[in-house]
Write a structure and sequence with these properties.
heterodimer; A: 505 residues; seven-stranded mixed sheet; five-stranded mixed sheet; 27% helix; 21% strand; globular; disordered N terminus; B: mainly alpha; 13 helices; 0% strand; SBP_5_dom (chain A); SBP_5_CS (chain A); peptide transmembrane transporter activity (chain A); Peptide/Ni-bd (chain A); signal (chain A)
């Protein structure tokens, strides 16, 4: 199972742009919400995603976002449940008329866990930490537009950009504000969040204690402990024996029945942003031909695949955009399942007798299952699939770095990651100058309306080009004890705000 | 005896030195790049180079090797590439789980296997002798994770007597809780281990029962019990101790499956995580410590065998193999 973790951060990890929840977003367990709860409860959280280290600019991975984002560290902004941006440590901000200068006013009276007061210097330091040469943050390239950071006074930060970037404020929600004097951030912390790090025992657990000096509303529980499991069954057993109160992201659908049929648990089906892709190498034959890509997309019955992998959970999608992105449109009809059409397209492309290709398949669930399914589906239109099982590490080197593949399977967890189709150098090799131009224009747009309009065009174009085959959207399933309420429900692969979780005795 | 001890210790030192070279070189020959574990999607070549530089994996191999040896000499196992935590204390923390787990399982297995194996041999013509023999054969065929799942289902999920897995974050700070966490894993390993031990004990006992010296001792008037005690036990234990040494050593890291089923932070799972992440310092640290343990266990097994069997005392590395 450890290989699974490895790949989740290779693709998922630090880039994780999962939709977050607002303070009141979670409405899990209903029974406890009205009554009284234990203000000094210890909440035990079960997870499969242990951090690599505690620094999100040094390869901390998906787990560090889950455990620390919003709980221990806070940004100037925070993403809300519907993908919008809320002010957090920024009390207010102004944008200059040319859209190049942002002036942020910091909230007053914010203290770090070490006791030091938050100043503009810390914000400057934190931003520079992300854009530094040795930064391993996935946000680095997005924030490279930052040209200058000025700190006219202790509560004001003035950021000048080299070009317009409509996503700047959104990207800032991924920048943790850290005490500029803090040391050893891979193993310790100094943030402003409602919890302080109590202890991280690598390989087993990470515990957080309520921070008495928090600037906002105190956390609804005294302590949260993230318990880390490598094995989904062991995690489910822990929930069944009350060793944990909630599982952040259920990955074994077979196990759900035992919780659904048990009144002591609540199974929550939220919105995820994780897509399973059959990614073609659009620069390798025969997938250079849009007709071949469309044919393959039409030949595969996504609904049946989803049914076999996830039972009744998850959603079909017709493009890279999950419903929570602002530029979502339902495009499942563009390349809907249609074997006759697939055969016709193949004939038009000169492959009436089919062809054969190698599918590089990561060796962990659900990829092998999906690969076998795709193989049988494509056999019906005369295409032979050779399944080549590879480790996450091989995938990263062979496919992601060297682009040495014909087609591959991979999960992409981020929200708003449609824009990767604007980068012709990305691993899947999709190169449509019009799309690249739209993506650039969208980033330079003056309003979110204009940005949304442009990205909708990108969405439709990539779907019509069958740039990849988007097989399905993962479900986001949180299973919790009925004693719990207030836990987040959506996009939890990356973030799990714990401060509103209420536990009855 | 002193000369033997010195030679045997020198042999141990040379083995350890050779093992450290081999494991260092073999690790570096694995495909893959530790920087992959640190960088995310969209990482530029510069970011990857920076990651390599920060962990020192861009330096020449001989330099990395001498650096590691230098650290070892001062008792330092280095720092994890991935977590930045020092490897030594982390290995020690894992030993808190692995050593009690292994030793307790070992002792329990011996307590079960020796009487059971003896009975299976001595009473092989009775129904319970045959049953013991059959059950042990069946036990060898049972996969350890399956047994673990069954025990969890019965004793944790249904009866609720014991935790289904995990280990307290404070370790042995609360001994009762730590003990409870280890009960099922210990039983799991012990059952599987004793199944194969019973076979060895049984066959060693059968050899003894059919031996001339036992018959001779009996002819001289010894009771069966005292002949067995004086001659039989000694002869039977020499081969069994060899097997015990190997079983004990292999359980140190071989418990990884049990650790996974019971979500225990043991040495085996640390090694598995290290390998998945190409975290060389962690892998080296774990393998070095476990190599040392295996060599020491072998050494002790030799000593015990020589103590029991005077015929072995002329040889450097003794014991029936």
């Amino acid at each position: 199972m450890s290989t699974k973790k490895n790949i989740s951060y290779a693709v998922a990890s630090a880039a994780a742009l999962a939709v977050t929840l607002t303070a009141c977003g979670g409405s899990g367990g209903s029974s406890a919400s009205g009554g009284t709860w234990d203000k000094d409860a210890v909440v035990n959280i079960g997870s499969l995603y242990e951090p690599q280290n505690l620094d999100n600019t040094a390869g901390g991975g998906q787990g560090v976002t889950e455990a620390l984002n919003g709980n221990v560290y806070e940004g100037l902004f925070r993403l809300t449940d519907d993908g919008k941006v809320d002010k957090l440590l920024a009390q207010d901000y102004e944008t200059s008329a040319d859209g190049l200068t942002y002036t942020f006013t910091l909230r007053d009276g914010v203290k770090f866990h070490s006791g030091k007061e938050l100043t503009s210097q810390d914000v400057k330091y934190s931003l520079e930490k992300v854009t530094a040469d040795d930064s391993q943050s996935a946000r680095k390239s997005n924030l490279d537009v930052v040209k200058d950071i000025a700190t006219p006074d202790a509560r004001t930060v003035k950021v000048t950009l080299s070009k317009k970037s409509i996503s700047f404020v959104y990207n800032l929600s991924y920048v943790w504000i850290i005490n500029s004097q803090a040391k050893n951030l891979k193993t310790t912390e100094d943030g402003t969040g409602p919890y302080t790090l109590n202890k991280w025992s690598r390989g087993s657990a990470l515990s957080l204690n309520r921070f008495a000096g928090y600037w906002g509303d105190a956390a609804a529980n005294k302590q949260v402990v993230f318990h880390y499991y490598k094995d989904a069954t062991a995690l489910n057993n822990a929930l069944l024996t009350n060793a944990v109160d909630v599982v952040t992201s259920e990955q074994s659908p077979d196990a759900l029945e035992q919780f659904k049929s048990n009144g002591s648990y609540k199974v929550n089906d939220g919105d995820s942003t994780t897509k399973l892709l059959l990614a073609f190498n659009d620069k390798a034959k025969p997938f250079t031909d849009v007709k071949v890509r469309r044919a393959v997309s039409a030949a595969i019955d996504d609904k049946k695949l989803l049914e076999s992998v996830w039972g009744g959970y998850g959603k079909e999608i017709g493009s890279m955009v999950p419903p929570t992105d602002p530029w979502y449109e339902d495009l499942t009809d563009v390349n809907a399942h249609d074997v006759a059409k697939a055969k016709k397209l193949l004939a038009e492309a000169g492959y009436a007798k089919g062809f054969s290709f190698t599918l590089d398949t990561p060796n962990y669930d659900p990829h092998p299952t999906a690969a076998t399914f795709i193989k049988s589906q494509l056999a019906k239109v005369g295409i032979t699939v050779k399944i080549n099982t590879i480790t996450p590490d091989e995938w990263y080197t062979k496919v992601y770095k060297n682009h040495d593949f014909t087609a591959t399977l991979q999960e992409h967890v981020n929200d708003r990651d449609l824009v990767w189709y604007g980068n012709p150098d990305f691993y899947w090799g999709y190169d449509n100058p019009q799309v690249t131009k739209w993506v650039e224009e969208a980033e330079a747009a003056s309003s979110t309306a204009a940005q949304t309009e442009l990205l909708k065009k990108v969405n439709r174009q990539t779907a019509e080009d069958a740039a990849s085959d988007w097989l399905y959207l993962y479900p986001q399933i949180v299973v919790a004890s009925d004693k719990l309420s207030g836990y987040p429900l959506n996009g939890l692969n990356s973030q799990f705000f714990a401060y509103d979780i209420k536990k009855t005795g | 005896m002193a000369r033997y001890l010195l030679r045997r210790l020198a042999f141990l030192g040379v083995s350890l030195a050779l093992a450290s070279v081999v494991l260092f070189v073999l690790l570096r020959m694995l495909p893959g790049d530790p920087a992959n574990a640190l960088t995310a999607v969209g990482a530029s070549p510069e970011q990857i180079a920076a990651a390599r530089h920060s962990i020192g994996s861009d330096r020449p191999l001989p330099e990395q090797f001498t650096h590691w040896l230098g650290q070892l000499a001062s008792g330092d196992l280095g720092t994890s590439f991935v977590s930045s935590l020092p490897v030594g204390p982390e290995v020690v923390a894992r030993l808190d789980v692995t050593v009690p787990l292994t030793l307790a399982a070992f002792v329990l297995a011996v307590l079960v296997a020796v009487p059971a194996g003896f009975t299976a041999a001595y009473r092989r013509h009775t129904w319970y002798g045959a049953l013991l023999s059959g059950v042990s054969q069946l036990g060898i065929a049972i996969p350890v994770f399956w047994l673990g799942m069954i025990l969890i289902a019965v004793f944790a999920l249904n009866a609720g007597w014991l935790p289904s897995g995990g280990f307290p974050q404070d370790g042995w700070g609360d001994p009762a809780e730590a003990f409870r966490a280890l009960v099922l894993p210990v039983v799991t390993i012990a059952l599987v281990m004793s199944a194969s031990l019973i076979r060895y004990v049984r066959s060693a006992t059968l050899d003894v029962l059919g031996s001339d010296y036992l018959r001779t001792a009996r002819a001289h008037g010894s009771s069966f019990g005292s002949a067995m005690w004086r001659h039989g036990l000694r002869n039977a234990s020499v081969p069994v101790i060899s097997v015990l040494g190997i079983e004990l050593a292999s359980t140190l890291l071989g418990a990884v499956v049990v650790e996974s089923v019971y979500a225990l932070p043991g040495l085996g799972s640390l090694l598995a995580t290290g390998i998945a992440q190409h975290d060389y310092p962690v892998i080296q640290g774990v393998l070095f410590v476990s190599t040392l343990a295996v060599l020491v266990i072998g050494f002790l097994a030799d000593l015990v065998q020589r103590f029991i069997d005077p015929r072995l005392r002329g040889r450097l590395s003794g014991g029936a193999r």
